[in-house]
Amino acid sequence: PRHYWAPVGHSLTLATLTAGGAMLLGVPLGLLLGKTDLPFRRTLAVLLSIPLLLPPYILAVCWFNLLTSHGLLARVIPAEAVEPLSTSLFGLPGCVWVLVSAFMPLVMILTSIYVRAVSPRIEEAARLVARWPVVLRHITLPLIFPGLLFAGILVFLLALGEVGVPMFLGYPV
């Protein structure tokens, strides 16, 4: 029936925006944690991976308790600044925010794993003739593209199947 087309469109929009947001945040973090010798990078990776241990619905409740006008953030910053955050939590922006925070660690971990699988000899040879941004763009990213595609599709499918967060935040899917 016709009345199912709108929620299906909402679900596809939510899944697409979630996958895009998770990729925009997770790929650079995965590259940073996988290719650099950043101090405490393992600790940072563990801390950023904690949302994977919680169901997205629990994350939505946590964000609700943090961002609403009577939440924890309202005690720290003025009410005028909390009000826009509180109203944007409900609907599509809030659903995307919660699901990106839930699924971004997946992209970060997969990117980090695929980056470590690239042979350093190939990158070192390329570094003889080019700077690291060129090597990253023309050597590393094309080699890990299948892994990035897998991460994006996985996040898209997980977000497409998620109904708890949109129901809690009032977005019809």
Give descriptors for this structure.
mainly alpha, 8 helices
Oligomer: single chain
**What is the typical, i.e. mean, pLDDT?**
91
Number of strands: 0
Number of helices: 8
> What is the global morphology?
globular
Low-confidence runs? none
Order of helices and strands: HHHHHHHH
Task: Work out the strand percent.
Answer: under 5%
Largest sheet: none
- The radius of gyration computed from the alpha-carbon positions, rounded to a whole number of angstroms, is 19 Å
Name the helicity range. Answer: over 70%
End-to-end span in angstroms? 15 Å
**Which class of secondary structure composition applies to the elements?**
mainly alpha
Q: Briefly, what is this?
A:
The protein is an all-alpha fold.
Model description:
Helices cover 76% and strands 0% of the residues. With 173 residues, the chain is mostly helical. Helix 3 crosses helix 5, helix 5 (92-117) crosses helix 7 (132-160) and helix 6 (120-127) packs across helix 7. The longest helix has 31 residues, at 5-35. The protein is globular and about 55 Å long. The relative contact order is 0.20. The mean pLDDT is 91.
